[in-house]
Amino acid sequence: MKVEQIYTGCIAHAAYYIESNGEAAVFDPLREVQPYINRANKDNAKIKYVFETHFHADFVSGHLDLQKKTGAQIVFGPNANPNYDALIAEDNQEFQIGDYKIKVLHTPGHTMESTTYLLIDENDKEHGIITGDTLFIGDVGRPDLAQKVAAELTQEKLAGHLYDSLRKKIMPLADDLIVYPNHGAGSACGKNMSKETTDTLGNQKKTNYALQEMTKEEFIEAVLDGLTPPPGYFPQNVMLNIKGYESLDDVLTRAGKALSPEEFEAAANETGALLLDTRQAEDFKNGFIPNSINIGLKGSFAPWVGAMIPDIKQPILLIAEPGTEEEALTRLSRVGYDYTVGYLKGGFEAWENSDKEVDSITRISPKTLESDLAKSEFKVIDVRKASEFQAEHIEGALNIPLSEINEHLASFPKDQEFALHCAGGYRSMIAASILKQRGWDNFKEVAGGFNKIKTETELPITQYVCPSTLK
Question: Does the global pTM surpass 0.70?
Fold first, then answer.
């Protein structure tokens, strides 16, 4: 049985495609559906079903556009209650795709409608499981997201359901089954995912902490331990996936307006839109439109947009490298940001050539940081995640994770010079652009971040020491 994983690294997402005898099925598709249609056309196949493992929080699924364009039937597992036409399957119900069978295994826990799909080949042999966010490689789905949509679903209740689902539905299955999860490392839907995107169930039974022998109480404690707050856009994406959304084609048509510098400036003044610059940090720091925010397209763009822009209905004006505008608009819409007003025709260069006001950010080398820190009044602010900071950091540095910057602006000094850094420079430039927009001008950003600081300076580094090694 051939299962094709279609992996999108920037949001650590895996969709799946299978085909047999001219019939095809797609599992958990992204919002831009043409690649799936093209794949089926290559096989001269008709997409018969679009299977959803649950109502996703980290992206807007493409099931509605696939249904509209191909006539495919949308399938959810038990407990799902969408506001559009879909088949709500029963536990253990089977679907036929050519010579293949798809068996529904209701596995609540990540959400109450979470479902695993058991793949059965043409010889009636069980091949693998498409697990959605129930089981990842090295981890399981976090059980605290559904409570953001339904208050009565506490994370403890959901974790208890997940314990039962794993032990009653997943772990009794054969060890040689292939596990096909919805996400890999980098997704905010779990906390300890492997970089590998498939594995055997048998190996996961040996290595995945959540599948080891423990009581339900121990499992709940282990699964909930160390969870960071989910990105603010997650509940909004869940509601789009439940209630429905506008076709991506219509969104791109409306948002794809090329605006001259004068039109762009007028639109900014009239709409109050957020100015989003998607160029690389190196280009942004040399010159940018005042009050614009930098979130580079060549990075974890969509998740950081979701983390830093709280409202998915926020009007956006786009500044992008010419030729990348459609990609940026598509990636915004993947996570539900459908209200882009237009983009700057010709990019930042057109703005600069029109003699309009520009701003810049001072970026320094790690060696310059080392010299600056010799000044007693100079401060370092590390915007990496708390876990990264706890593992190792510059001695005396203050940790304000980028995802929490809006809640802790008062912690950034205005009467003292300071430097910003992350691991490599992507996140610290986002932070720098936000601080510039909010009126800070007394800081520098460190090129190459902590990775370069460690190798190019002799600054003292504080490293975490495991308590078991202390004497």
Answer: yes
